[in-house]
Structures are given as C-alpha cells and as structure tokens.
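I'll show a sample.
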Amino acid sequence: MKRIMMTTVLLLTVVMGLQAQSIVGTWETVIETDDNDKVTVDVTFEQGNDVLIKGQLKIGEGEEGTMVMSVTFPGTYQQNGQTLTLNFDANKGKINIDEAIFPKEVEDLLADDPDKRKDVLKMMQDQVDESLAKELGDSLPLDGDLTIVKLTDTELVLNDGDDNVTFTKVK
C-alpha cells in the first residue's frame, strides 16, 4: 500500500511538473531595435501547434512626428525537446498604422479637412503594406529553429543562435 501511494505521488509530481512547463499561452518581451525604438512582442502558442506573433512599435517622437504600428503574423510551431521550430507566414502578416501624430505644420494643414487626413493615412498604410513584402520577403525574426534555454510557469528564454530572448508569461 505504501509503495502504491509513493508511486502515485511520484507520478502526480511528474505530471504536474510537465504541465507547469507547457509552452501554451501568451508570452511577452520588449526588444530594442537598432534605431533605439522599443517593440513589445507577444507570442501566443495555442493547443494544436498554431502560433501568433504580435508586436507594437512606436516610431519617432518629437518634431518629425510619431507613428504607432501594430504587426501580426500567424504561423505554426513544433516543440521537440529543447528545440522549438517556428514557421511564420510572411504573406499573411499585417501591419496597421494605429496612430499617426504629424509635425505641427502638417497637423495644421490636415486639421480643417478630415477627408484629406484619411487620404494621407491611407497613402501611408499603402506604403507600409508595400514595403512589408519587400522588407520581409519570406523571413521573419524568430522564424526557424530556436533553442529553449529555460521554460517555467512564468519565464521562457529562447536562443536564436546568437542571442537569448527572455519572455514573461502574460496569459
């Protein structure tokens, strides 16, 4: 009887430990770009191997204006031991201009004409959409094979071959 209880406790400990280290959920990190802009990146791993990467980037501040954009790319993942393979589909990615704050002289020109403001924002969105295909091609950051350095209930550390990227579980 004692042996059965010990085996049951050991089995429960192992099973609970495996559940505690599930990659499923939403993980967040902040990455600094070469231009010193900060990008908040959320990666959501779902049951069934679907993955979604979302980012929000604030570009520029001050006299030249500010633009806030959100980025979304769907894909799939496969975990095999410490190797995590991510495959994002750049062709299904979306970049949206969430907010645009223009320099004062441009704001003054657009203030009286809401239609002109919409046209300018649409033109900017079209340029962003066009440049997305050119810039990314078929490759995205975190795409491909990564090494899981650490995985706990609250922390995920991935290595892309050059750098460690630390994520915090948010959901």
In short: Helices lie at 2-20, 104-111, 114-136. The first helix runs from residue 2 to 20. The radius of gyration is 22 Å. The chain has three helices and nine strands.
